[in-house]
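lol ok so funny story. i was supposed to be doing the assay writeup but got distracted and ended up predicting the structure for this chain instead. priorities right. anyway since i did it might as well share w the group, maybe its usefull for someone
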Amino acid sequence: MAGALTVNAMEALFQPVPFGETRQSVLEKISTPENAPIWDMFRSIDPDKQHKVLLKWEEHIRAERDSSCQSLSAAQLAWQRWAAVPRKARTVLKQADPEHVAILELSYLQFMEDAGETSLILTLPDALQRLIAHGLASFHGLLSTSDPSENEDAKTVTIRRPKGVSAGSAPEMTCADILFALAEQPAGLTPALLAQYAGQHSHDRSSEASYVFA
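and the output, tada:
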């Protein structure tokens, strides 16, 4: 039987490469004298500078978190408004051209912010267009009625604020925003995806007071 192996004999059993070569660990490499300046940098950090860097980093993280929460909160509110729209109107809105809906919705946004206006009257010749108008009213928490028009081929949709509700700022996310997001997310949309979409896109809100479909 073979005698006991010495340390050198045991090491020789694992030679040649890849087992026999003794390699330095990362810690051993950076602990060598030539890397001493690197360690000095870590040992000589100015506490005041370190404190300022940490404060700036905390502010950055807080700002990102607040921005994310605000976007998600606006998206959740828009999602709740969307859920309040009757199913039939939601179906028609999804089938409509988002650009057309966005243009029509501009008049709602201006009406909501204009304290001098008590009602918004839209003359719409088509039943589907009127259903879209009623759906937008539901989305924005407004009241809407269809009334006969002087034009025999059309009816008017009258939009009013609920009793006790005064003019205020328009919502951060609109019904059109949801429709644009749905067009890019055919597999399904969630408040989180809506917030992500809103952060990547922006739609200009013109000052037009009304729009009539051609």
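The chain has a mean pLDDT of 77. The beta strands are 119-124, 143-148, 155-160.
back to the writeup now i swear
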